[in-house]
Design goal:
Elements (H helix, E strand, L loop, with lengths): L6 H24 L10 H4 L7 H21 L5 H19 L9 H21 L12 H23 L4 H30 L2
Amino acid sequence: MRPVPRWALVSSGCAPLLLAGGWVTAARLEGAAYDPATQTISVLGAYGAEGFWVMSTALLALGVCHLLTAWGLRPAARAGRVALALGGVAAFAVVLLPAPSSGGSLRHSSVAVVGFAVLALWPVLAAHRQGAAPWGLRPVPAFLATALMALGAVWFLIEIHRQGTPGAAERLVTWMQSVWPFVVVASCLRFSADERP
Protein backbone atom coordinates (compact mmCIF):
# COMPACT_ATOMS: atom_id res chain seq x y z
CA MET A 1 0.00 0.00 0.00
CA ARG A 2 1.36 3.43 -0.97
CA PRO A 3 2.31 5.58 2.00
CA VAL A 4 0.65 8.84 2.97
CA PRO A 5 3.07 11.79 3.22
CA ARG A 6 3.29 13.33 6.68
CA TRP A 7 2.29 16.74 5.35
CA ALA A 8 -1.21 15.30 4.71
CA LEU A 9 -1.60 15.17 8.50
CA VAL A 10 -1.09 18.95 8.54
CA SER A 11 -3.48 19.67 5.66
CA SER A 12 -6.20 17.40 7.09
CA GLY A 13 -5.65 18.61 10.66
CA CYS A 14 -5.86 22.27 9.70
CA ALA A 15 -9.21 21.86 7.92
CA PRO A 16 -11.48 21.65 11.00
CA LEU A 17 -9.45 24.29 12.85
CA LEU A 18 -9.67 26.77 9.97
CA LEU A 19 -13.38 26.12 9.47
CA ALA A 20 -14.33 26.50 13.14
CA GLY A 21 -11.95 29.42 13.60
CA GLY A 22 -13.54 31.13 10.61
CA TRP A 23 -17.11 30.76 11.79
CA VAL A 24 -16.29 31.75 15.39
CA THR A 25 -14.33 34.86 14.34
CA ALA A 26 -16.88 35.89 11.70
CA ALA A 27 -19.72 35.45 14.22
CA ARG A 28 -17.90 37.70 16.70
CA LEU A 29 -17.54 40.35 14.02
CA GLU A 30 -21.27 40.13 13.33
CA GLY A 31 -22.04 40.70 17.00
CA ALA A 32 -25.22 39.96 18.92
CA ALA A 33 -27.40 40.16 15.81
CA TYR A 34 -26.02 36.80 14.64
CA ASP A 35 -27.36 33.62 16.26
CA PRO A 36 -25.15 30.60 15.44
CA ALA A 37 -27.91 28.15 16.36
CA THR A 38 -30.58 29.55 14.05
CA GLN A 39 -28.47 31.15 11.30
CA THR A 40 -26.25 29.30 8.86
CA ILE A 41 -22.59 29.72 8.07
CA SER A 42 -23.64 31.18 4.70
CA VAL A 43 -24.99 34.24 6.53
CA LEU A 44 -21.44 34.91 7.76
CA GLY A 45 -20.07 34.69 4.22
CA ALA A 46 -22.84 36.76 2.61
CA TYR A 47 -22.08 39.99 0.76
CA GLY A 48 -22.17 42.87 3.21
CA ALA A 49 -21.65 40.71 6.31
CA GLU A 50 -19.12 42.06 8.81
CA GLY A 51 -17.27 38.74 8.74
CA PHE A 52 -17.48 38.24 4.97
CA TRP A 53 -13.71 38.24 4.38
CA VAL A 54 -12.97 36.09 7.42
CA MET A 55 -15.51 33.42 6.48
CA SER A 56 -14.56 33.55 2.81
CA THR A 57 -10.86 33.15 3.64
CA ALA A 58 -11.63 30.24 5.99
CA LEU A 59 -13.66 28.48 3.27
CA LEU A 60 -10.93 29.02 0.67
CA ALA A 61 -8.37 27.60 3.10
CA LEU A 62 -10.67 24.64 3.80
CA GLY A 63 -10.89 23.98 0.06
CA VAL A 64 -7.09 24.03 -0.24
CA CYS A 65 -6.81 21.63 2.71
CA HIS A 66 -9.25 19.18 1.10
CA LEU A 67 -7.41 19.34 -2.24
CA LEU A 68 -4.01 18.75 -0.61
CA THR A 69 -5.35 15.92 1.54
CA ALA A 70 -6.97 14.25 -1.48
CA TRP A 71 -3.65 14.48 -3.32
CA GLY A 72 -1.68 12.97 -0.44
CA LEU A 73 -4.16 10.26 0.55
CA ARG A 74 -2.66 7.70 -1.81
CA PRO A 75 -3.99 4.53 -0.13
CA ALA A 76 -7.61 5.65 -0.60
CA ALA A 77 -9.59 4.44 -3.59
CA ARG A 78 -9.46 6.89 -6.49
CA ALA A 79 -13.21 7.65 -6.40
CA GLY A 80 -12.94 8.75 -2.77
CA ARG A 81 -9.95 10.97 -3.47
CA VAL A 82 -11.81 12.59 -6.36
CA ALA A 83 -14.89 13.15 -4.15
CA LEU A 84 -12.77 14.75 -1.43
CA ALA A 85 -11.10 17.01 -4.02
CA LEU A 86 -14.54 17.95 -5.38
CA GLY A 87 -15.50 18.90 -1.83
CA GLY A 88 -12.54 21.30 -1.86
CA VAL A 89 -13.65 22.74 -5.20
CA ALA A 90 -17.19 23.13 -3.81
CA ALA A 91 -15.76 25.23 -0.96
CA PHE A 92 -14.22 27.55 -3.58
CA ALA A 93 -17.57 27.71 -5.41
CA VAL A 94 -19.41 28.64 -2.20
CA VAL A 95 -17.04 31.60 -1.85
CA LEU A 96 -17.41 32.59 -5.51
CA LEU A 97 -21.21 32.37 -5.26
CA PRO A 98 -21.94 33.76 -1.78
CA ALA A 99 -25.42 34.02 -0.35
CA PRO A 100 -27.06 37.41 -0.79
CA SER A 101 -27.39 39.65 2.26
CA SER A 102 -31.11 38.83 2.37
CA GLY A 103 -33.17 36.06 0.84
CA GLY A 104 -31.92 32.87 -0.75
CA SER A 105 -29.80 32.00 -3.75
CA LEU A 106 -30.34 28.93 -5.91
CA ARG A 107 -26.74 29.04 -7.19
CA HIS A 108 -25.26 29.27 -3.69
CA SER A 109 -27.59 26.58 -2.33
CA SER A 110 -26.81 24.29 -5.27
CA VAL A 111 -23.03 24.38 -4.80
CA ALA A 112 -23.47 23.97 -1.03
CA VAL A 113 -25.63 20.86 -1.59
CA VAL A 114 -23.06 19.41 -4.00
CA GLY A 115 -20.33 20.05 -1.44
CA PHE A 116 -22.35 18.40 1.33
CA ALA A 117 -23.08 15.40 -0.90
CA VAL A 118 -19.56 14.68 -2.13
CA LEU A 119 -18.06 15.18 1.33
CA ALA A 120 -20.64 12.81 2.81
CA LEU A 121 -19.97 10.18 0.13
CA TRP A 122 -16.19 10.32 0.02
CA PRO A 123 -15.60 8.01 3.03
CA VAL A 124 -17.52 5.15 1.37
CA LEU A 125 -15.99 5.84 -2.03
CA ALA A 126 -12.47 5.86 -0.53
CA ALA A 127 -12.87 2.54 1.32
CA HIS A 128 -11.06 -0.65 0.33
CA ARG A 129 -13.24 -3.71 -0.10
CA GLN A 130 -10.46 -6.29 -0.17
CA GLY A 131 -7.33 -6.99 1.82
CA ALA A 132 -5.85 -5.25 4.81
CA ALA A 133 -6.49 -1.53 4.98
CA PRO A 134 -6.05 1.28 7.49
CA TRP A 135 -8.96 1.60 9.91
CA GLY A 136 -10.34 4.77 8.27
CA LEU A 137 -10.43 3.08 4.86
CA ARG A 138 -12.23 -0.08 6.01
CA PRO A 139 -15.82 -0.50 4.80
CA VAL A 140 -17.59 -0.45 8.18
CA PRO A 141 -16.03 2.75 9.62
CA ALA A 142 -16.34 4.42 6.21
CA PHE A 143 -20.02 3.47 5.93
CA LEU A 144 -20.69 4.68 9.47
CA ALA A 145 -18.99 8.02 8.74
CA THR A 146 -21.08 8.48 5.58
CA ALA A 147 -24.26 7.46 7.43
CA LEU A 148 -23.61 9.94 10.26
CA MET A 149 -22.93 12.74 7.79
CA ALA A 150 -26.09 11.87 5.86
CA LEU A 151 -28.13 11.86 9.08
CA GLY A 152 -26.66 15.24 9.98
CA ALA A 153 -27.63 16.57 6.55
CA VAL A 154 -31.20 15.27 7.02
CA TRP A 155 -31.33 16.99 10.42
CA PHE A 156 -30.13 20.21 8.75
CA LEU A 157 -32.90 19.99 6.12
CA ILE A 158 -35.52 19.35 8.80
CA GLU A 159 -34.31 22.35 10.79
CA ILE A 160 -34.34 24.57 7.68
CA HIS A 161 -37.89 23.45 6.87
CA ARG A 162 -39.25 24.01 10.36
CA GLN A 163 -37.18 27.18 10.88
CA GLY A 164 -35.55 25.69 13.95
CA THR A 165 -31.82 25.45 14.54
CA PRO A 166 -30.26 24.91 11.10
CA GLY A 167 -27.05 26.68 12.18
CA ALA A 168 -26.37 24.07 14.85
CA ALA A 169 -27.12 21.20 12.44
CA GLU A 170 -24.95 22.69 9.69
CA ARG A 171 -22.03 23.17 12.06
CA LEU A 172 -22.23 19.55 13.21
CA VAL A 173 -22.27 18.21 9.65
CA THR A 174 -19.49 20.46 8.37
CA TRP A 175 -17.40 19.69 11.45
CA MET A 176 -17.77 15.92 10.86
CA GLN A 177 -16.92 16.38 7.19
CA SER A 178 -13.81 18.40 8.01
CA VAL A 179 -12.57 16.02 10.74
CA TRP A 180 -12.97 12.71 8.88
CA PRO A 181 -10.06 13.32 6.45
CA PHE A 182 -7.78 13.80 9.48
CA VAL A 183 -9.04 10.53 11.00
CA VAL A 184 -8.34 8.69 7.73
CA VAL A 185 -4.86 10.19 7.29
CA ALA A 186 -3.95 9.40 10.91
CA SER A 187 -5.15 5.80 10.51
CA CYS A 188 -3.10 5.45 7.29
CA LEU A 189 0.05 6.74 8.99
CA ARG A 190 -0.54 4.40 11.93
CA PHE A 191 -1.13 1.47 9.56
CA SER A 192 2.11 2.22 7.72
CA ALA A 193 4.02 2.36 11.00
CA ASP A 194 2.53 -0.97 12.12
CA GLU A 195 3.47 -2.62 8.83
CA ARG A 196 7.17 -1.79 9.24
CA PRO A 197 9.27 -4.68 10.58
